[in-house]
Design the sequence.
């Protein structure tokens, strides 16, 4: 990895630690959705692993890192499996599962938009392109989770600012990297800001605007 | 790009212009479907960008061009975003959105089957393989759009010849490339033919045959 | 391919033959689902080809073999097309289509978990990583088939041990490769074991355990 952009050892360690926490959080969200959809233990494990590793696999395919790290370091899948086992034995009632699912997902989202941007930048992408790939990394696992489970992806229809925190977190990270100000602390702040913004939007029900219906009577037409 | 097959500057310019128009057309189709599904402004932007760039990203991953051009030239995402903004502020009533969606999609389909085949051929694939990848490029964005939005992909169930125009357009393009007859004009003709065939099939309701039901009483059984 | 791990010519021939049979079996399963969903002849062909080649394309993108073999050797798509034509003209009544679909899928699953693991190992992955990619190769085509057709993927919700036979078949194959005991016969046995286990689970209705509902009254809550 001698041709990669160097971050310094503290930032590298934070990057690794962040990825592990993000994988665990996304694994929880996948397992929770699997329980809500009443899948069996195998379905819970599969959805947990796919959610936790999916964003990173997409990121690695895009930057040409093959095989993707999730296939080389099986500890990522192991952490997701651990999340699945936890949720299998202990999970909230199905009717209130939405909140912990969204909180776990928010943590993964906020972490991956930072670490995804950093990895893309390290592999030589421009700051702007790295931010774009950071967003894709952050939302990718959740999109795979939702499509596999047959629910509309949060990134499209959540109604409570899902992509925007990821975009701001990625843009902040890319700006820090571009100006050489990315450190353990500033990167952590960008991630915490993204997680926080998503959670505030979630609990205060901040909605992005809808397209105006063309005519009044159009409001209730069938889709 | 010195090892790429050369087309001549006029054909190269047409290739670039075609891709921009195709991206805009697919962006419109994604934004229109997002409005029909009542997604908010973020969902409209995300579905527009995913539809417009998805086919090209698949094409680039298949030919090993990493990072895919959509991540390097963010102008593609910008054009899709422009389409999303237009549709957000001005869109037809939801109950008649199907027709403009299909027309925009037909334009993207016809252009991408040509430009996708050309790019694959330039990267060293055989004419036959390039035609296959051209079809995948043309239908890929629409498949991503439909799967994300939770509707059955047009390529499977449209009922009015969707994949066939793309296949004919790609095959014509590959034949032109194979015999050294691909130019600005012949390529444009292949694309226009594919768009035209799709539109005629759409408005004259040309249907491909269904598999014969095995027995009469099978017709109304539950699926 | 001089830097690939050598298996011996008999095992290589078995690998090729196995892949062709697996492609045909998955092609049948895709075509059968398309008939069940009442897609037209184009939809049947597209779903057959996507199911038959999807797992291999994912495998090749992960190991960095671009373009994926399915785009280079169009005989794979041709075999899937043959399966589609067969099913178009001759298929069981829609109400009993589930069983032949599951049997065809089981054959593809059992073969691809072996051949996918072997290919990954030949391309330099560790035995453990190769087993992981073997599972993804085996379940990938079916996931693409089910997501495109709008049904919940078998790997998540089948209820009758779907991923487990693939995992055991891949693990057995990886163990054989690691200890240099992979041959025509031992590989065939691993594949036959995976197919057999899946079929027994299917017909004896072996179910993996569900997550325990948190409270009794939670059982019938809406999802």
Sequence:
């Amino acid at each position: 990895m001698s041709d990669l952009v160097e971050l310094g050892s503290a930032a590298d360690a934070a990057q690794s630690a962040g990825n592990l926490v993000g994988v665990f959080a996304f694994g929880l969200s996948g397992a929770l959705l699997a329980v809500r959809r009443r899948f069996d233990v195998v379905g819970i494990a599969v959805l947990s692993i796919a959610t936790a590793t999916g964003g990173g696999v997409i990121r690695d395919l895009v930057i040409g890192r093959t095989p993707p790290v999730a296939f080389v370091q099986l500890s990522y899948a192991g952490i997701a499996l651990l999340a699945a086992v936890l949720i299998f034995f202990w999970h909230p009632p199905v009717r209130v599962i939405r909140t912990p699912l969204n909180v776990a997902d928010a943590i993964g989202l906020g972490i991956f938009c930072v670490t995804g941007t950093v990895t893309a930048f390290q592999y030589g992408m421009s700051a702007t392109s790295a931010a774009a790939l950071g967003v894709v990394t952050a939302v990718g696992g959740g999109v795979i989770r939702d499509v596999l489970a047959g629910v509309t992806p949060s990134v499209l229809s959540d109604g409570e600012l899902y992509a925007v925190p990821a975009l701001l977190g990625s843009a902040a990270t890319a700006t820090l990297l571009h100006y050489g100000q990315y450190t353990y602390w500033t990167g952590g702040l960008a991630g915490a800001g993204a997680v926080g913004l998503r959670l505030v939007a979630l609990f205060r029900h901040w909605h992005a605007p809808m397209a105006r219906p063309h005519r009044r009577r159009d409001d209730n037409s069938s889709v």
In short: Chain A has nine helices and no strands. Residues 216-223 of chain A have pLDDT under 50 and may be disordered. Chain A has one domain: 9-208.
